[in-house]
Design brief:
CATH architecture of the largest domain: Alpha-Beta Complex
Number of domains: 2
CATH topology of the largest domain: Nucleoside Triphosphate Pyrophosphohydrolase
Strand order of the largest sheet: 7-4-9-8
Number of helices: 3
Largest sheet: 4 strands, mixed
Mean pLDDT: 96
CATH class of the largest domain: Alpha Beta
Low-confidence stretches: none
Length: about 200
Amino acid sequence: MPEAASGLQDEHLSWPVVGSRELHREWVLVLREDEVQRPGHPEETFPRLVLEHPGAALVLAVDDQQRVCCILQYRHAAGGVFVELPAGICDQEGEDPRVTAERELREEVELQAEHWRHLVTLYASAGTTDELHHVYLATGLSPADRGDFELHAEEAEIEQVWVPVEELVEAVLDGRVQEGPIASAVLTYDALRQRGRL
């Protein structure tokens, strides 16, 4: 089996799209259907559904005791209450995702951070959506007022919990915490720590 080249990386490009139609638009989401052509094979086209999404900013907020600020939130699509990170959709056009992350940390869990570091940016599911997750590490935490922001719907039932980093890593590895963004965030943080890159 051939080994990957040392310069392994994703390649961003687009196969020819010979037709496209919008199927549904709601809030910041658009569902469209593209008719895609395989390069070099003009006779071969196939439909692909794409969920357009502006992306999200997520915050791995770690305190001085190496505990992560997590939230427990109901998610209707997946059917359950999930362990997650403070996060929000990048729905302000032109806004830096870090600014979104700062606002979401304040609004969801009433915290602010002295130090911010970009950890990783990942596609949520490249086969179905263009949604990107921008993950930030926040440290030097202190209380903050959410101002006039009001929690609604699922957010109104959020429960905040502090979880030691090691316990969260084990919960992910054991399959007890299954939401992708929190798993990728804490595993990236743990890998960077172990490599001396934090």
